[in-house]
Amino acid sequence: MRISRWLAEHWVLGVALLVLGYLFLPIAVVAALSFNRPSSRLSYDFNEFTLDNWRNPCATSEMCEAVLRSVQIGFLATVVATVLGTVMAFALARHRFRGRSGLNVLIFLPMATPELVMGTSLLALFVSGGVPLGFWTIVIAHVMFCVSFVVVTVKARLTGMDGRLEEAAMDLYAGEWQTFRRITLPLVLPGIVAAALLAFSLSFDDFIVTNFNSGTTVTFPMYVWGAAQRGIPPQVNVIGTAMFGVALLLVLATSLAHRARAGGQRRPAP
Amino acid sequence: GTPAAQQTEEGCVSEDLSGAERTLAFSNWPQYMDVDEDDESRRPSLDGFVSRTGIQVTYTEDINDNNEFFGKVQNQLAACQSTGRDIMVLTDWMTARMIRLGWIQKLDRSKLPNVEANLLPSLRNRPFDTEDQYAIPWQSGLAGLAYNGRVTGEIRTVDELLTRPDLKGRVTALSEMRDTMGLLLMSNGHDPTDFTAAQFDDALTKLRRAVDSGQIRRFTGNDYAPDLAKGDIAACVGWSGDIIQLGFEDERIKFVVPESGVLLWSDNLLVPNRAGHKANAEELINYYYDPTVAAQLAAYVNYICPVQGAQAELEKIDPELAANPLIFPDEAMLAKAKVFMALDEQQEREYETKFQQVIGA
Amino acid sequence: MTVDPQTSAGDLRLAHLTKTFGALTAVEELDLTVPQGSFFALLGASGCGKTTTLRMVAGLEEPTRGRVLLGDRDITRLRPYKRPVNTVFQSYALFPHLDVFENVAFGLRRRGIRSVDGQVRRMLSLVQLDGYERHHPAQLSGGQQQRVALARALVNHPQVLLLDEPLGALDVKLRRRMQLELKRIQTEVGITFVHVTHDQEEAMTMADTVAVMNAGRIEQLGAPAEIYEFPATAFVATFLGQSNLIAGDVSGGNGGDLLVTAYGTRFSVPSARSRADQGPVLLGVRPEKLRLAAAAGQVPAGHQHVEGSITDAFYVGVSTQYLLRTGWGTELSVFVANSGAQERFAVGERVVAHWDPRHAFLLGRQVDEDDRTAPMRHEPVGASW
Amino acid sequence: MTVDPQTSAGDLRLAHLTKTFGALTAVEELDLTVPQGSFFALLGASGCGKTTTLRMVAGLEEPTRGRVLLGDRDITRLRPYKRPVNTVFQSYALFPHLDVFENVAFGLRRRGIRSVDGQVRRMLSLVQLDGYERHHPAQLSGGQQQRVALARALVNHPQVLLLDEPLGALDVKLRRRMQLELKRIQTEVGITFVHVTHDQEEAMTMADTVAVMNAGRIEQLGAPAEIYEFPATAFVATFLGQSNLIAGDVSGGNGGDLLVTAYGTRFSVPSARSRADQGPVLLGVRPEKLRLAAAAGQVPAGHQHVEGSITDAFYVGVSTQYLLRTGWGTELSVFVANSGAQERFAVGERVVAHWDPRHAFLLGRQVDEDDRTAPMRHEPVGASW
Amino acid sequence: MSAPAHVPTASGEQPASPAPAARPGRHRFLPYLLLLPGAAWLFLFFVVPLVQLAAASLYDPAGSLSTGYALTWSFDNYPAALQAYWPQFGRSFWYAGIALVLALLMGYPLAYAIAQKAGRWKHLLLVCVIAPMFTSFLLRTLAWKTILSDNGWLVGLLRDVHLLGPDGRLLATPVAVVLGLTYNFLPFLVLPLYASLERLDRRLLEASSDLYASPLKTFRRVTLPLSMPGLTAGTLLFFIPATGDYLNAELLGTPNEYMIGNVIDSAFLVRLDYPQGAALSFLLMSAILAVVFGYLRNAGTRDVL
Ligand SMILES: Nc1ncnc2c1ncn2[C@@H]1O[C@H](COP(=O)(O)OP(=O)(O)OP(=O)(O)O)[C@@H](O)[C@H]1O
Ligand SMILES: Nc1ncnc2c1ncn2[C@@H]1O[C@H](COP(=O)(O)OP(=O)(O)OP(=O)(O)O)[C@@H](O)[C@H]1O
Ligand SMILES: NCCCCNCCCN
Ligand SMILES: [Mg+2]
Ligand SMILES: [Mg+2]
């Protein structure tokens, strides 16, 4: 009886852990291979444990350049998309104006459009406009498909925010800018950070749109794609594993920082 | 609408910056360049070029398939924009198309004395480049069958590849229509040098059956190689040099020349429009037509070397290789090797479309 | 309800203040003076315009017409952050990302004050929150949050402190405690408090002056006891405390008294306690002013009485509340303190309710208005809620 | 506090019910019988285990030890959805995605009842919500939501209805209205109500039986008037209503009375109203039972009295509350109804507080316990809040 | 009381600051100003290209690279494209649909457990859902290729327990493709779902069980409907990219598993049949939008995003 009750309450956790295991399975393979000394250039099997790949992650300079480039693109795209998207989210959450619903559709559509379609159509635009493909066209494309995600994420946070806090700030001698700077921004910040993380992960990982609009510029996913066709150097797995670790640390750090600021557990109601 | 992609020498002028910039961007297929046995990041012949000329080469293995690569660069070339590459390697038929579209720069023959001296006669004055001023062969090669003896038994014929039950789902063929269809035409007893539309359709039906039955896992570019090496793929349609290279690492990987015949093709060095370093490219071409360099390259890539005198040089390095008919084909081999016939634009479109539909895209 | 002619330098004055939202008039031609340093309570039913009034004073809402003055200074169009007015919001509106100290220091810092430490700590100690500086709002109980909100406003030494139902969200017990605390602090700091509440008891025990608002207008304004003892309108009589109102007509005068006839019975009310001296009137008696006797003979001399039978009785510890059906069919409610001295009556018993005429009051009446019974503590006040 | 030996078929019985959370014992060896059809109120300070008790009855929490019985049926381990018990939650927990009708129909549908229409409508009409069928919870006022929660539970005709502070979130006025409503409905449907509240007045006016809980145990159980008039412990005396408690010692007996000496003065208490007949005791008098006189001479015969001076006075409309400093230095609190008959006293005046000994009661006392003054309505109840 | 009559003005009022106090007129143009950069970006780099693409879908199908393409309003391109590739079309929706079902079966418990059962591990678990997205999509898919490979341990295991025949495979089967789709887009389903489930009031679940609903019924009648907004958003964010994906089919499947994305990819990059590629793109988009709006209507929450 008790066991069945315990099971009834905890089986979901069990399933969740299994699903997490599923999510981590390929990561585990990538991580394992990052410690592999492959038997040959074309082999992808685990052969022999080594730390060489980690000691020397830049075996091929193309790969490290590609990683660096992807980070740069991701960073730029994240900053631009986060700024544009946040500002839009503010306008949408805080103001009533004509053309709102049209705008909402404009923001929703990129999320509802297959990447392929976005990639090809944007390519056609660049080519017909004589824009040379490369680093900047990739940035433009990434900003384009990240903006919507940022708007949606930040808007959710903003609408959940108590507008009276801003009134309270104004009542306490904070002008419009001060109110924004001291109250609104810090309160919406977790949403903005989440949006930025999402944007970065979307940009860093994008292959399809990038492939169409990159010209000869090679990003990390494109490098991996190309490398897969001719045999992947094991260091690619180092980068993959490291990015995973960085993400874990980053997200964990932000959420810890956030929790520390919010001051820990909510007190039970009196 | 969009304007025609056709360019002319007058309409699309390229500026050569070679004087100021001693650099060269080189796009090539994987496994098409010699690599140092001990340090895989070094490419001895290319390094030799760099030290000899001082020209820094950015070497990228980003060509996996002619069509795929064309798709990547055609937008820029059609708009007379730089592709970011100074020199690239494409197969005959694609070379022909590019030249026809006016996308390739004319080379200065005077800067290519080695080519003048050493290019095999059979590869001179080809129909798409009658004066050898656009396209200089990089390597020739054969398209035939290959298998990994670690995971399957020997394969002799195309039909075996397409129907043997133990190979089901462990076979790849090339997305290169001419190679795959050429082999099938020959396996049907037809001649890829000269076939009819009906014969093509017959061969295609055979292919479709193999696809539908699940015999063929994928149609690939050069990326069949890792899968074959791993044994994920038991057998495939592949290119001679690649397979021979794999054979060095695992002798159970074998290239097979089917009785019905193989396809012979050449890949060519091309300098696209708006490439900024034509003169540097010409230096590279000339360098690789030095028989000793050619032999060095051939000894590694194991494709058919277009450079006269290389065989003699190779004999000095590795006599066994020099005697390999897959690298320096003998008469018997040449008798089995056919060149896929030239297609006009209409035919090409028709056959490509049909083929693409069967290979699933 | 007109502007007090003599105002001192720090008085808060509202002149003809009006606010409309579309077709709705939330506040209508409000004229009001809140003397400097007083504890002013604004009472009224939900939706009567209390919050809107406060928001206009704070500058969070712009008046449609009229002016807001602080002493002689017109602050009607001043932005909220430029007014020497602070607000304690109903839900506190504490900044969740700042700790207690920073919440309290917020206003000081915004005004560019550097060394806020002393002031903040003194204020936290005034509201008995020493040691809570580094807690975040989410870690505080409701009462503690309330005090932070108070400290955050008070530390700025505003001329006027607005409190918009700051106790509305608290449970009864905590509410009572906070009331005393607020009153103590107001006495200590001497700032003008304008306190909005739904709770009449709260208003009465805390405020120097109470204003009862109804539908955007002020119905009566004065000291709590004054209003309670002698309400100006039926609305006030029933909103502030409870009243039995008997519909009647003035039938004449008798020296200092007015005579009222209701249901064939004559009652008298001192004219000093009459808001109307002719026509239809409501005779009001508060339930605790009514007393019960077993028979008419026991009614003290000079008292007026009504006979009836008990229809309901509630024991509530401190007092017992009776409902009495009169001869003419309406009901009266009577609160009898359980002081031990009084007799207890049972439901169904016939009794006499009596009162000293000096405790009655007289209000004007619309012709169609009927009797109203003071709701017993545990009876629904109105039909619709 | 022991199990009632004679129980009827539908009584709710808790036997040795215990719940521990880690080291904390939330409910300790609770034995309790709630007679079928009664209105039972559970009172106690925050955290004393009321909610935990209810949750164990509802099946939402599993007891660490002990049993829950309905009549003879042991339901201790029954899953909540299999118990004939329903709960009205403090926050109502209405399903926001369902309209009023579907909220009320929820339980019926879950039990597979097809034609719910009639029952739901009847129930909605009982709680006076006809016409609100298609409204969603978010569109209702607090009071209306409360009634939906009630209807949603009642429509299932449970054997026991648990109410966990269902009125806690309402403002004072609405709260009073809802109390009456609840009582009316309980009388109408005759289901056993177990009502948890913080509010003693609420418990007293509504319940047939009140249990006062303290730290996981029940301190006293009985009819409200019974408990109020003669509390069993100091906790009950101060928790249920308010009391002045004077520390003294039993110094002897006198017929039916006990004599108590406190601060050198002798008081008497009927032994029938004494919980201790020797040693240290607390003499209790409720503030409304105290009366004030200007001089000792005016004290009625048989009354006992204490002299002192007024230190504080609060006018609260219905009554005036005085704080009196006695000769020995502690304070007494006195509530005088504003019935108009009583004299008013000013702060500083010397007065005599007197009471009928039959209104006093005697409780056992810990040796170190001191006087306790009934808090005035507007005075902080404890030091720490 | 000495009151600070004057408060220093907060200088430099920023256009970006929201004004909670409604001041009519004051901010009439502010929203437009705020929206302008982002909207312009989307217009220029999303709408304009899309219109161009729409035009391309109506080009003369007889055009070619060397001759160019003329806009001849050839609406026939649409039926022609559909006729040639309806199997891939159907397959896209079929695979994405199955993947969606699998993802829901996995994602719902995961989101639920994190939101309601994880207690103080909540944040960590949530991070675990997001972090894999930082390891390249391709790398993860290639890892799947290794895991599912014919000689891998998984296939070996499944063969040993006879879930797969001796020649049974996982790689290059529909199973692998659907698994890949499920895997790659799962976080997009879980995140919005989590957000919605986190807001779910536990007391409602208790109320439900108090009202005779078994755990299953509670889920069906309370949990599920209340998580609908998140479920809808998550479903869309999963289904849309999954339908348009071609990498999973390409890497894990065979031509028999190719989806419409593969066709469009090859139309644009290999076959250079722009009219057909564009027509297929638009068919895909409108099919997706049709499904989306149909779904939104049924889900009853239009305002999901
Ligand atoms: N921004 C607004 N737009 C439209 N009507 C409003 C607005 N603010 C308030 N109102 C309306 O003005 C009237 C007065 O509202 P106000 O908030 O001042 O009432 P209140 O007395 O504070 O009520 P409560 O006691 O319920 O807080 C109400 O009818 C309300 O609906
Ligand atoms: N799930 C739990 N885990 C740990 N402790 C708990 C839990 N639930 C309740 N408690 C503790 O058990 C004690 C009794 O709690 P309970 O909720 O029953 O009190 P209560 O009498 O209902 O209080 P209140 O009047 O504040 O609602 C409290 O100290 C509380 O903190
Ligand atoms: N590894 C180099 C392979 C080069 C193949 N070229 C394509 C030939 C097509 N027929
Ligand atoms: Mg209000
Ligand atoms: Mg509780």
The protein's oligomeric status is: heteropentamer
**How far from one another are the termini of chain E?**
52 Å
What coarse outline of chain B follows from CA principal-axis ratios?
A: globular
Mean pLDDT of chain B: 93
The arrangement of helices and strands of chain E along the chain is HHHHHHHHHHHH
The total number of structural domains of chain E is 1
CATH second-level architecture of chain E: Orthogonal Bundle
Beta percentage of chain B is 15-25%
The computed structural class of chain B is: alpha/beta
| Spatial extent as radius of gyration of chain E | 25 Å
Keywords:
heteropentamer; A: 270 residues; mainly alpha; MetI-like fold; 76% helix; globular; disordered C terminus; B: 361 residues; alpha/beta; ten-stranded mixed beta sheet; 10 strands; 16% strand; binds adenosine-5'-triphosphate; binds spermidine; binds magnesium ion
Secondary structure: elements and pairs:
The complex is a heteropentamer, with 1 copy of chain A (270 residues), 1 copy of chain B (361 residues), 2 copies of chain C (385 residues) and 1 copy of chain E (305 residues).
Chain A: H1 2-33, H2 52-55, H3 61-94, H4 100-112, H5 115-128, H6 135-159, H7 164-171, H8 176-205, H9 208-213, H10 220-230, H11 235-262
Chain C: E1 12-21, E2 24-34, E3 39-44, H1 50-58, E4 65-70, E5 73-74, E6 85-88, H2 100-110, H3 117-126, H4 142-154, E7 160-164, H5 172-189, E8 192-197, H6 200-206, E9 209-214, E10 217-222, H7 224-229, H8 234-239, E11 244-254, E12 257-262, E13 265-270, E14 280-285, E15 291-293, E16 304-315, E17 319-326, E18 331-337, E19 350-355, E20 361-364
Parallel strand pairs in C: 3-8, 3-9, 6-7, 7-8
Antiparallel strand pairs in C: 1-2, 1-4, 4-5, 9-10, 11-12, 11-14, 12-13, 14-20, 15-19, 16-17, 16-19, 17-18
Helix pairs in contact in C: 2-4, 3-4
Chain E: H1 30-56, H2 77-117, H3 122-130, H4 137-148, H5 153-160, H6 174-198, H7 202-210, H8 215-226, H9 228-244, H10 247-252, H11 260-269, H12 274-299
The complex binds adenosine-5'-triphosphate (2 copies), spermidine and magnesium ion (2 copies).
Spermidine is lined by residues 29-32, 91, 143, 176, 178-179, 222, 239, 241-242, 265, 267 of chain B.
Organism (chains C, D): Verrucosispora sioxanthis
GO molecular function, one term (chains C, D): ATP hydrolysis activity
Protein name (chains C, D): ABC transporter ATP-binding protein
